[in-house]
Design a protein that fits this description.
Layout lengths: L1 H23 L2 H14 L9 H21 L3 H25 L16 H20 L10 H25 L14 H4 L10 E10 L2 E6 L12 E11 L22 H5 L5 E5 L9 H9 L5 E5 L2 H7 L4 E4 L2 H7 L5 E6 L2 E7 L5
Parallel strand pairs: 4-5, 5-6
Antiparallel strand pairs: 1-2, 1-3, 4-7, 7-8
Helix pairs in contact: 1-3, 1-5, 2-3, 3-4, 3-6, 4-5
């Protein structure tokens, strides 16, 4: 029994540490996932606090995993882990049964799990923690309190510092589709064996107080101007296998709305894309851009902040992109991407650009 409990304890502890480390590598990724949950629940008011919550949760997950391994404080750690796994199980269960969240973010972007896999994992962890709780008196704690406190404080500091570093200098391991060496055009292609959803466009109209929904390609014979248009939506007819391109859309437009994506990808010489979702004076733009332009002829600022770009960088080459694209491509604002056609040759935080 003792060996079984030891294996179970180490398995749970290591899994919590591993899960926390992956997310601590990219705390902004977890923050964006939290925002997705809050948006679905109609709680967008909490979106401004998701980064702080992400940083805290990552530290908590790793430190409690370490506390379980050193068995200090043992019983309190088990109760805390039980509370955490109940919370995580609720999230993965919601993602699975509601269908509103595609991935729970349990292992970040490095190991994307389906809601079903995540939910099963959490159920197994829940059962494991309950077993450890029922047998807590059979496990002896040998760690000296002072040593235990020192290890947990050191772990807290190390994880906190590591997260501060990646928020300023990009993740240690880039698991996103825009990592250095990737070809954006290749990443936009459908993966082999992918079967897309079969969808139909349904149109909603109103006539004499009644609602009518038509297939966009099959309007009724008596359709006339008495039908008042209300809405249109895509309805999935046949579900695909879920395989999608790593990058579903990459579009860069000028301030006037002209799509410049293919023109950039066809450029015969290397060029630089500087991603920054928001443009403000917290960045020393003049000094930074002078440094970049000393090495590259073509430099473009990619942002979703038209007004900020026009106010601060109106003499620069500005390209507009969707904010989700920028958040995915660049965890630090600004992030420098040196491009050769559609291939990312270098990706670096502006703080590290020399």
């Amino acid at each position: 029994m003792q060996n079984f409990l030891k294996i179970l304890r180490w398995s749970v502890g290591i899994l919590f540490i591993f899960s926390g480390l992956i997310k601590a590598n990219d705390p902004l990724g977890l923050s964006y996932k939290m925002q997705e949950f809050f948006d679905v629940w109609g709680l967008s008011v909490f979106s401004d606090y998701t980064l702080a919550l992400s940083l805290f949760m990552n530290v908590l997950e790793i430190v409690t995993g370490i506390a379980l391994l050193i068995k200090y404080p043992y019983q309190q750690t088990l109760w805390l882990l039980l509370a955490l796994i109940i919370f995580f199980t609720f999230l993965t269960g919601y993602a699975l049964f509601s269908g509103k969240i595609k991935t729970c973010g349990c292992f970040g972007d490095c190991i994307p799990l389906s809601p079903k896999t995540s939910f099963i994992k959490d159920i197994v962890l829940f059962v494991s923690i309950v077993i450890l709780l029922f047998n807590k008196k059979k496990v002896k704690t040998n760690a000296h309190p002072a040593l235990g406190v020192f290890i947990l404080l050191l772990s807290t500091f190390a994880v906190g510092y590591g997260q501060k570093h990646v928020l300023e200098h990009l993740p240690f391991i880039d698991c996103l589709p825009y990592k250095q060496g990737n070809d954006i055009v290749e990443k936009m292609k459908m993966p082999q064996g992918a079967i897309p959803d079969s969808v139909a466009i349904m149109m909603e109209f109103e006539k004499e107080g009644k609602k009518y929904i038509f297939d966009a390609n099959n309007f009724p014979e008596n359709f006339d101007t008495t039908y008042v248009y209300k809405d249109r939506k895509e309805v999935v007819i046949t579900k695909g296998n879920g395989l999608k391109p790593a990058i579903e859309d990459f579009t860069l437009t000028t301030l006037s709305g002209v799509d410049s994506t293919q023109q950039l990808f066809s450029n015969p010489i290397p060029y630089v894309l500087i991603f920054a979702g928001k443009i403000d004076n917290t960045v020393p733009w003049e000094t930074f851009l002078t440094k970049v332009k000393s090495k590259h002829t073509l430099v473009y600022i990619v942002t979703a902040d038209k007004s900020g770009a026009w106010e601060i960088l109106k003499n620069e080459n500005i390209l507009i992109a969707d904010i989700t694209l920028i958040k995915t491509a660049a965890r630090v604002w600004p992030t420098v991407m040196v491009m050769n056609g559609s291939t990312i040759m270098q990706k670096i935080s502006y703080l590290d650009y020399k």
